Amino acid sequence: QVQLVESGGGVVQPGGSLRLSCAASGFTFSDHAIHWVRQAPGKGLEWVGVIWSDGSNKYYADSVKGRFIISRDNSKNTLSLQMNTLRASDTAIYYCARDRGPVAGTSFDSWGQGTLVTVSS
Amino acid sequence: QSVLTQPPSVSAAPGQRVTISCSGSNSNIEKYPVSWYQHLPGTAPKLLIYHSHQRPSGIPDRFSGSKSGTSATLDIAGLQAGDEADYYCETWDTTLSAVVFGGGTRLTVL
Hints:
The complex is a heterodimer of chains A (121) and B (110).
Chain A: E1 3-7, E2 10-12, E3 18-25, E4 34-39, E5 45-51, E6 58-60, E7 68-73, E8 78-83, E9 92-99, E10 108-111, E11 115-119
Parallel strand pairs in A: 2-11
Antiparallel strand pairs in A: 1-3, 3-8, 4-5, 4-9, 5-6, 7-8, 9-10, 9-11
Chain B: E1 9-12, E2 18-23, E3 35-39, E4 46-49, E5 63-68, E6 71-76, E7 85-93, E8 98-101, E9 105-109
Parallel strand pairs in B: 1-9
Antiparallel strand pairs in B: 2-6, 3-4, 3-7, 5-6, 7-8, 7-9
């Protein structure tokens, strides 16, 4: 069955960096765009960014643009989120989510369980 | 302030019907299909509706979606205690070139 497993979360100081990973299995990874979505404590879902199935396009939320970078390795069925210049407001559970199609704009039909990132001194 | 506007909370008794609204604009809902998700704390969100009105396999027909103009709605009929959760609408915004979520609606089954 479709499975997405996030890893790499933890505690980091403001201004620091962290790299999250998402390991995919149970489907043809290269057929789907993959998104990152986060939920800060007590807040709603917030979209972070997306990478198309072939990696040719990436889009980011304004709140992370210029600080976060999404990449993927279709040969290893993995997705990464490099987070730089972290702020307290980046504290959240980070989910990777599969898009139904190869590009963004359809819907997220499978989600991982999430990994917690805490930005604190 | 979310681009898509949802009521913060709705409530109804078991067996009743509830409607959750999602209001957007001509740069998002009017142009693109809407999806709806159910999210219970501590779990992964679940896709309930895609393409504004389609249900993935395994989602009961108690859940239905519709869209008109710049608004979308999620209807839940025959409410059950297990339906208590947060519900989010989502679509693409062409002006932002970004996915946008509603602020979420907390459903309470009385």
